[in-house]
């Protein structure tokens, strides 16, 4: 009868010293390539979103007056209900 090889002894837990500074996040990497998922005869291609610079902020009054660049947008609920009145 064969006996299994003994397991290696567990390593002792090491204690890291606490530091005041939080770890720095890694630098942004290149975007992942597109992924193609095939289910039967259907292919779904998932492409990572493009990295865009943040849009400049506008005063709140411009957004309420309807003259802002995003004034012609619909909410998801309005879109699904078929309401054509932009907010």
TrEMBL record:
Q: Where is the composition biased (Low complexity)?
A: 12-22, 62-77
Cite the record's Pro residues compositional bias ranges. Answer: 1-11
Protein origin, superkingdom = Bacteria
**Location of the region described as Disordered in the Swiss-Prot/TrEMBL record:** 1-34, 49-87
Designated name of the protein: Uncharacterized protein
What is the organism field in this record? Streptomyces virginiae
Q: What is the lineage of its organism?
A: Bacteria, Bacillati, Actinomycetota, Actinomycetes, Kitasatosporales
């Amino acid at each position: 009868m064969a006996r299994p090889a003994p397991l290696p002894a567990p390593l002792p837990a090491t204690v890291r010293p606490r530091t005041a500074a939080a770890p720095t996040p890694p630098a942004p990497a290149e975007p992942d390539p597109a992924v193609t998922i095939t289910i039967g005869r259907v292919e779904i291609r998932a492409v990572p979103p493009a990295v865009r610079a943040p849009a400049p902020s506008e005063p709140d009054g411009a957004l309420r007056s309807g003259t802002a660049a995003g004034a012609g947008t619909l909410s998801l609920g309005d879109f699904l209900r078929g309401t054509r009145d932009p907010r």
